[in-house]
Structure formats: structure tokens, C-alpha cells
């Protein structure tokens, strides 16, 4: 039986940059991208590498709007976002978490996500960083 789950989240500076006593530490969209993709990414604004053990990541890709001439790798893209947004209340990214039916094959899941992301986000000018996880 297919189970439905959808969670929406905004990654913003006002919620993600909590300074701790003894030093300024914060979460960043680079760290979030490293976690979602299972890749090792360098956050230039913090001078720090982020790496998470995510063996359940089965597919990642960045989808750009049609006509976009500049395409970046994940690390460059998210460091550009961090650097471009200056406001303390900036919304840096939106995260959409969707549970897909396990009855679908991997190719069907990827196709479904691509179609959904292109229709609802990329067609409106957004860049989408997609990561599919399949936990045991």
C-alpha cells in the first residue's frame, strides 16, 4: 500500500544562523545540500567541509530552467546562494520532502520527481537540487 508524506521547509538565515556561546556556528544551505546529496561539500563562508554518511542516496541531480546558460556543480551553486543573499532574514532555499511509493521502480521514481519538480518549480524560474533516498 502506498504511503503519502509531504513536508515543506524554508531554509532561512533568521532560523539557521544561531550563534553559540564561544563562537559563531550556524547551519548553512551548503551543509543542508551536503546532507541531502550525501556529497562532501565545502562551505566557503565558514571555511569548513561538510560530509554525511548517506548510503541511502540513490540519485542526485540539479535541474535548471530552460534557457539557463550557466550550470554549476552543487558546491559552487550553494556557495553562490550563500554569498548572494545578504539580508539576515533571507530565504536561501525551500526543501520539499516527498515519500514515493516503493512499488515504483527507481526509474519511475526519478521520472515522477523530475516531472513534478519541472512543473511546479523549475518552470517558475527556480533551480532544483534533487536527491532521492531509499532507506532500507
Helix and strand run = EHHEEEHEHE
Strand order of the largest sheet: 1-5
Count helical runs. 4
- Assembly context of the chains: single chain
* Spatial shape: globular
The amount of helix comes to 25-40%
**End-to-end CA span:** 17 Å
Return Rg in Å.
16 Å
Structural class: alpha+beta
| β-strand amount | 25-35%
Uncertain residue ranges: 17-25
- Number of β-strand runs: 6
Mean of pLDDT: 87
Largest sheet: 2 strands, antiparallel
Blueprint of the fold:
Layout: E1 5-12, H1 13-16, H2 29-37, E2 41-43, E3 48-50, E4 57-63, H3 74-84, E5 91-99, H4 106-120, E6 128-133
Antiparallel strand pairs: 1-5, 2-3, 4-6
What does this structure look like?
The chain is globular and about 45 Å long. The protein is built from four helices and six strands; from the N terminus they run E-H-H-E-E-E-H-E-H-E. By secondary structure, it is an alpha+beta fold. The strands form three sheets. A two-stranded antiparallel ribbon has the order 1-5. A two-stranded antiparallel ribbon has the order 2-3. Strands 4-6 form a two-stranded antiparallel sheet.
